Automatic annotation (TrEMBL):
PROSITE patterns xref list: MIR
Protein name, UniProt field: 5135_t:CDS:1
SUPFAM superfamilies, per the entry: Concanavalin A-like lectins/glucanases (SSF49899), MIR domain (SSF82109)
Keywords of this entry: Repeat, Signal
SMART domains, per database record: MIR
UniProt source species: Funneliformis geosporum
Amino acid sequence: MSEISSGQPPFAGLEFLPKKSTLHARFTGNWTNNAGIYELDDGLLLDRWYHLAYTLSDSEKRLDVYIDGEWVGFYCIQNVKTEKVVFNDGPLYIGRSFDNGFNGEICNVRYFNWRLCAEEVKQDYFDKQIVYGSKVTLFHVPTSKYLSKSSNMETSRAVGINREDDFKNCIFTVIEAYGTNVNTGNPLPFNTTFGFKHQATGGILHSHATIYGVTPVSKHQEVLVWYGRDNNDDWIIRRYNPNASKEVSDYLMSSELISISHKLSDKLALYSHPILLEDGTQEVSCHGNGNDENIKWCIELIDDSKL
């Protein structure tokens, strides 16, 4: 059978049907330029993250789709002797097709030059999940600085720095809230009370009322990397999305956009802004709440083997 010729180039990809958020997994074959799964399940929910995987193989004559590591659909070529998948060297579009864009956020895109099996997809999903004991960094989205501890030995102040300046000083371990016991490896749901332990020094991310100390420039409630434990070390992690449903309480994944509220400070959240201290680091405080752009952080999982 000869390969098809049409006005549209060979296409393979995962799209959403308009207004329904149902997955539309398609590819081009030598008998049609639009084969695959038309519609999967009831659609994805708004205002939450999903791990999506799409695999396609000509040798195995099949397409598979996974959501959050779970196999949810497939399409198989039946006439295996004459029909085949058509690949091409055209552009790879992420977040749009030939002309239409995706109104949402995408992160952690990975391309493999082989078809992942179900076990590999599931492992890729769980490798992105943040659990108690995970090592992470906190990236301040508005200013592109990383949360760190001041290198000045005379202060325990939390600051914002460039990653390349002192990467190992930007790493924290996710730990249980003060006075609680949680097994290492347990997943971390949103709206959970927890703590951060500074990897390099063993100090705990800490804040307290302004009567005990304020930031040098803005006079906000200060944030420290402190030694010893009390309930001033407790934080609540929330998804940064003013429109997200309060009923959403799924588990924290790497590259989530989050806000981190200080539990004892009446909803004040971890905050930073482009104000520099005397040593050139960026001021970090406990200040904003609600929809404030300056409380927007991205949590990033760190691979222990690369430390």
